[in-house]
Amino acid sequence: MRLHVVSFGCQMSVADGEELASPLKDRGFTAVAEPDAANAIVLNTCTVRQHAEDKALSLIGRLREWKDKDPERVLIVAGCAAERLGPWIQKRFPYVDLVVGAKSIEDYPRIVEEALGARFDALAETRQGFDGQGAGAGPRTGWASPCSAFVTIMRGCNYSCSYCIVPAVRGRELYRPLDTVLAEARAKVALGAKEITLLGQTVNSWHAADGQRQVFFPELLMRMGGIDGLERLRFESPHPHYVTDDMIAAMVGTPAVCGQLHLPIQSGSDRLLKIMRRSYDSAEILDKTARLRRAMPHVEVSTDIIVGFPSETEEDFERTLDLVRRLRPSWSYTFKYSPREGTESAKMADDVPDAAKEERLQRLNALCDELTEEALSARVGRVVEVLDEQGGFGRTGDGFKISWPETGPAGRVVKVRVIGTGRRVLKGESDERT
Ligand code: SF4
Asked: Which of these, 76, 61, 71, lies nearest to 117 by C-alpha position?
């Protein structure tokens, strides 16, 4: 039996997509890259932006032909768009075998078993394992590359940012137990992971019981740092509220933690941040990042920014530019606001003309690109440590992509001399002295 997994959206969605494959892996499915070769497809959808949702729905439509070729094939649609539009998807695409929303992911193995167990038994030809490892061989799910793995530590979100659909489709925060997180991380390191990225919608709000006491995110970082063989530890996406002195101290005191923090600011206008319900202001962002940089001088900060939020004036936008100039992110993900049905801001007038949104986006991108280029250029001539993820391609500890002529097998942390820059990427040559 062969399985093809497609995930739309963020890293969490990719990690979830692979987790959604687990019950099928346990039934002996092997992974295939091409849908045509598959007996089953798991399509993990995203609904954060309309574009991502449209792409998933379009793919479901196109998969009708795939199903028609062999009605025994199984199509599972899961994730955030499935949560938001479940009954509609089932009605609009009746050939979908199972629709499972994001809130049900913890219950997903049971749902799959109940709905499709008998079908899978009928399909079974072999019980060889996923990726050839043998069924139940280990948590070979949630990998960014053969040596870099994801570990999801929490799901859902207790915030209510006015533009965001996530709390509606993923529900309140649920935290995975400490032992489960550590066990998964150790197992992934045993399977070859040199780097682990902890994932969660507000990843640093994680906490869990350890016997009689509560363990919070900073301690989790330190406990993770004690795992033998784990060379790099990252986490996404932290919420500014939980960037505390304790968290900064844990980052500094845990050598495996990479010098990189992705801190979504969204706007530099305190007036807009209130309307967005972001629960911080620009002064707090500057204060926390200044503390972090004092404690960890090599750290790089990256961010997310929205332009054209309802009622955004030129003055608000200038404040965003000002915050970006002061924050100096080495990397920025920028977006034009578009209303998302089901959110609070979708009820507000989308009153910034598209031409103004576009013009602001271009000005913002010009500034962000300049800062990225400065950060890249500052590295030319330096020797950096890189986790070689693909034989000549990897990331520096502070998050820059770098390529260099391959000199050895992937999966090692190697020294590379930076000799130039490309678009958003460093170019290097090996500096390994053997
Ligand atoms: S913190 Fe805000 S933007 Fe992030 S997932 Fe929660 S509601 Fe959405």
From this structure: 76
**Look-up: residue for tokens 């996530």?**
166
Walk me through the domains of the chain, giving residue ranges and CATH numbers. 2-132 (3.40.50.12160), 142-258 (3.30.750.210), 383-430 (2.40.50.140)
Index of the ligand 1 atom closest to the CA of residue 164: 8
Measured between alpha carbons, how far is residue 402 from residues 87, 247, 286, 332, 414 in Å? 45, 28, 29, 17, 12
* Band of pLDDT at residue 124, cut at 50, 70 and 90: low
| Residue with tokens 């050939």, as numbered in its chain | 95
Q: 203 alpha carbon to ligand 1 midpoint, in Å?
A: 11
**What would the mean pLDDT of 357-366 be, rounded to a whole number?**
98
Output the residue whose Cα is nearest ligand 1's atom 2.
161
Relative to the CA of 201, which ligand 1 atom is closest? 5
How far away, in angstroms, is 79 Cα from ligand 1 center? 16
Whole-number average pLDDT of the chain: 90
The tens digit of pLDDT for each residue in 65-74 reads 999 998 889 9
